[in-house]
Amino acid sequence: VGPETKGERIRIEGRIFDGMNAPTRDILVEIWQANAAGRYDHPADRQEDKPLDPHFRGWGRTGTDFETGLYAFETVKPGPVAGRRGHRPMAPHVNVWLAARGINIGLATRMSFSDEAEANAADPVLNIIEQPIRRETLIAQRSERGGEVVYTFDIHLQGERETVFFDV
Question: pTM higher than 0.90 for the full model?
């Protein structure tokens, strides 16, 4: 994001844990998201009633830090978007894709926001996950640090707290 990008500035950060609950240190993390108005900067997004932001690309890529395992993105909080089927609104979310050695294909998941409880409760994608405890693996927790809004989204590749991944 730059100084002219519209929307609430946020930081998304977290760690990615393996099956032994150890942080990984060599994973590529990529995100795609709508802008603050809820529109993707992509030709397939037909929400013409929502403006594009010429100062926002809508995607980013980083790696986990080799020392700490932490990944981080500086972005804006996305707005709600219309879903594909019946245009039911989807809660604000960020699409996440992981790639690394040992992962034969990329893993796709999605991050929702803890302070969007009402929108999350109505979200068609979150509602296909039957167990509430599994649904919670897709919710990033909001905090503030030094006047900055931070959403922490830890991802578990395996184990008891395994994050929900999608076959896309």
Answer: yes
